């Protein structure tokens, strides 16, 4: 299985491409914004493709052709300006969804925010709300497609070493999770067809990633 | 017919409530953000309701109950920050659409931007693109409902006196239009059932508003 990792040069993305390249049956195609980001991925033996999420759907679809799955882990992040939130977290995400459809790639894994419900929008602090709105509409767009999607809602991200131990369910108590473990959860979701059509929150916990995913 | 005017205190909104109150068969309910904005509308004999577009759908639905149509002419405008673009032009619009459904109000007239197509997003200047994205997704959301909608795409707005003469069609050449004439076009659309399910661009031209609307 070949996986296009959108946002490969992000912190989760780099962990993910590393895990994918170490795995037996999966290989990564790293979608990056600048050619100078390529060396990290080339050293891992991963293919790279240079595309900007502000490019059009046709360009993104061309990068998507020939893979078996797309993972969206790009993010302007909640701390960039809301202009990039609109262009990347919402419109960039939707363009990769449309590009997947155009390229005939049915499997799509979205890295969302912990809670993108209407209630979460209403209760979000003012500075964070536009990010929640953007992620909300991207998730809605994906649910509305016929793609074999999985939507992962990780808790508050940190850069601690991963433990490989998580808790995952439709809703879990708010908590943190190392980015490294989010990357493990993504790979496990790609490798487990039972995650298709599901979405779940995930935080640090006491189950192995595989067990947590299987018991969803 | 009673019409909830969302964004009544905006420049188009004030013209619209004025025209509505002068008309025979229509009356306005002005949705405003602050009580101190009410006097303008009370002098016109229009009902007012104080609701913020960042309130929740239930609150907006309550303001929507009992009217026959909703007009969305609120706008953070392209010159406010992109955070408000997300919260008002996208999420605020969607919440009024959902509120209309919840309140059982089937008629909905959206004042969109001149061109909200995918192509317009791709070709927009960087500072304007988030606004086009927000209006794009609000329009998509509306088209996807069963509401009796009309989507109006006015050209570049100016504050000249209206002439009552416009050009309207699915696509017209880019041009300007006085806000006063946009308000006339909205009222004419509300009064002409043949505009249901249609969307059109409109700029200054040489047809009467009624003729232009009828020949769509």
Tell me about this structure.
Two copies of one chain form a homodimer. By secondary structure, the first copy, chain A, is α/β, with parallel strands linked by helices. The first copy, chain A, has a single domain, classed as NAD(P)-binding Rossmann-like Domain (Rossmann fold). Helix content of chain A is 41%, strand content 24%. The first copy, chain A, is built from eight helices and eleven strands. Chain A has helices spanning 11-22, 38-43, 57-64, 82-103, 118-123, 129-143, 179-191, 209-214, and strands spanning 2-6, 27-32, 47-50, 69-72, 107-111, 148-154, 156-158, 165-169, 176-178, 198-204, 207-208. Chain A has a nine-stranded mixed sheet with strand order 3-2-1-4-5-6-10-8-11, with helices on both faces. A two-stranded parallel ribbon of chain A has the order 7-9. In chain A, strand 1 (2-6), helix 1 and strand 2 form a beta-alpha-beta unit. In chain A, helix 4 packs parallel to helix 6 (129-143). The longest helix of chain A is centred in the middle third of the chain and has 22 residues, at 82-103. The first copy, chain A, starts with a strand and ends with a helix. At the A-B interface, helix 4, helix 5 and helix 6 of A face helix 4, helix 5 and helix 6 of B.
CATH topology of chain A: Rossmann fold
| Overall pLDDT confidence of chain A | 96
What is the spatial order of strands in the main beta sheet of chain A? 3-2-1-4-5-6-10-8-11
Order of helices and strands of chain A: EHEHEHEHEHHEEEEHEEH
Oligomer: homodimer
Please, how many helices of chain A? 8
Total domain count of chain A: 1
Helicity level of chain A, as a percent range? 40-55%
């Amino acid at each position: 299985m070949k996986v296009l990792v959108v946002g490969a040069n992000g912190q989760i993305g780099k962990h993910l491409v590393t895990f994918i390249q170490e795995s037996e049956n999966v290989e990564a195609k790293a979608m990056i914004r600048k050619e100078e980001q390529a060396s990290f991925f080339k050293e891992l033996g991963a293919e790279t493709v240079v595309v900007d999420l502000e490019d059009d759907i046709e360009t993104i679809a061309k990068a998507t052709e020939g893979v078996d799955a797309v993972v969206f882990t790009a993010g302007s992040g909640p701390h960039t300006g809301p202009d990039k939130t609109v262009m990347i977290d919402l419109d960039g995400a939707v363009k990769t969804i449309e590009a997947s459809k155009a390229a005939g790639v049915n499997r799509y894994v979205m890295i969302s925010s912990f809670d993108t419900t209407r209630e979460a929008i209403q209760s979000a602090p003012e500075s964070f709300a536009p990010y929640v709105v953007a992620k909300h509409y991207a998730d809605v767009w994906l649910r509305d497609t016929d793609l074999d999607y999985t939507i992962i809602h990780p808790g508050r991200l940190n850069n601690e070493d991963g433990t490989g131990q998580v808790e995952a369910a439709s809703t879990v108590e708010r908590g943190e999770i190392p980015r490294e473990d989010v990357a493990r959860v993504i790979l496990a979701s790609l490798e487990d067809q039972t995650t298709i059509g599901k979405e779940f929150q995930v935080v640090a916990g006491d189950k192995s990633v595989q067990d947590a995913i299987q018991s969803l």
